[in-house]
Amino acid sequence: MAGLFSVLTVSSGLGFYNLSLYMNVLAANRAFSVAEVSGAVGVFFLAGGVAGLAVGRWLQHGDARVVMVAGALLGGTALALIGQVTAQWQLFVLYGLFGVGNTAVSLLPATTLVTRWFDARRRALALSITSTGLSLGGVLVTPLSVVLLESATLESAMALMGLCYALAIAPIAVFTIRSFPGSSVSTRSAPVLGGTPLGEARRSRFFIVVTASYVLLMGTQVGCIAHLYNRGAEVVGPIEASFAVALLASMSIVARLLGGLLLARVRMMPFTLVNMAGQAAGLALLAEAQGATSLWAAAAVFGCTVGNLLMLQPLLLAQAFGPRDYPRIFALSQSVTTLGVASGPVVMGIMHGVGGYGLVFWAAALASAVALALASTAGPMPRGELP
Questions:
Q1: What pLDDT sits at residue 165?
Q2: Most buried one in 59, 133, 216, 266, CB count within 10 A?
Q3: How many degrees, rounded to 5, is the angle at CA 314 between CA 325 and CA 10?
Q4: Distance CA 245, CA 286 (A)
Q5: pLDDT score at 351
Q6: Phi-psi category of 196—alpha, beta or left, where left has phi over 0 and alpha has psi -120 to 50?
């Protein structure tokens, strides 16, 4: 778990949480428009979603260390070269390669390994601890990246971050990761695991409904996180807005750890629905926030759901369908969910131009409520993994 925690801290910090930082720096230093860099961010998510299908197939029986080392080298190289771009097509290609590499070292391999190594009773807590690295990356890595980009040239700063990405993740994967419990992680030693085959799982009502609801949930979640700072600066000021972002990340960590403990005592699907309702409520409060106190309270409510909802998608699929084909099942669900993740920030940016952030956050709250209503129709959870 410690190895996966560290990998997620680096990959999320230099990947997901730094995307808005790279956007501002590239727009300022390379004369790219914000729209052009936003398009590249969309390519990052879409390429990662498509690549996840291949990564999931590779993880099914192959060596997870090879997957993660390859992802670290590809992602680190692409990140280092972003500082050298001079044309939009180069930006899109490198962001796409970065997205592919990041997929191979992020949530897909991490949740696959946790699913295999921990049974249903302990899996939620194990995943809550491991995935806390995702939030910690934004807390620790992003501020350091800001200092680096302010004190060095774009070329040297991006090269150094790319080198750190590769050299931090690859050794951790080689020395701490094991694909299967009690095996040498080679393909030949991969055990036969119980669970539902991919073909049966993807046709099930539960898979289709959960995946569809997560398209809306993650699209609104990622989009609102991307626009939260601007919303706060509009309501109060930059300092108060930055505190709202920090509060969201902090509450995400605390609530995720509490959620991992609580899931040992409550049913998973009702807990998921409660968090969906919490996201809708938090976004509605952000739409109506008029001062620092109301902004911070709304960000805290929203933050309590962010980490849990991200953790619950793989947990639901693992419990419903078991570890047998989990890498490919989650990769398929995640690739569809990526449609919402990639389009959320863009759609909200367009809506802001039409009606301001009040409209944006109310629309996001409504979309989250629709996701809640949809998820409530998923029916009984399949019994792919018996207790």
A1: 95
A2: 59
A3: 110
A4: 12
A5: 84
A6: beta
CB atoms within 10 A of CB 266: 11
Q: How many CB atoms lie within 10 A of CB 147?
A: 10
| Residue 182: predicted pLDDT | 65
Q: Is 187 left (phi over 0), alpha (psi -120 to 50) or beta?
A: alpha
Distance, in Å, from the CA atom of 29 to the CA atom of 86, rounded to the nearest integer, reads: 10
Are the CB atoms for 296 and 244 separated by under 8 Å?
yes
DSSP state of 16: G
Distance CA 248, CA 256 (A): 12
CA 255 – CA 308 distance, rounded (Å): 7
Is 140:156 a contact under the CB 8 Å cutoff? no
Q: How many CB atoms within 10 Å of residue 387?
A: 7
Tokens of 271: 């807990």
Rg (CA), the chain: 20
Low-confidence ranges of the chain (pLDDT < 50): 184-188, 386-387
Instruction: Give the dihedral sign, CA 211/216/217/218.
Output: positive
Q: How far apart are CA 332 and CA 211, in angstroms?
A: 9
Task: Give the C-alpha distances (Å, rounded to integers) separating 213 from 216, 228, 320.
Answer: 5, 22, 16
Q: Is the pTM of this model over 0.70?
A: yes
Q: Collapsing DSSP states into helix, strand and coil, what is residue 263?
A: coil
Write out the DSSP string of 310-345.
Answer: HHHHHHHHHHHH-STTHHHHHHHHHHHHHHHHHHHH
CB atoms within 10 A of CB 377: 10
Asked if residues 263 and 318 have their Cβ atoms less than 8 Å apart, the reply is no
382 three-class SS: coil
Query: What pLDDT is stored for residue 192 in this prediction?
Result: 57
CA distance 284 to 289: 9
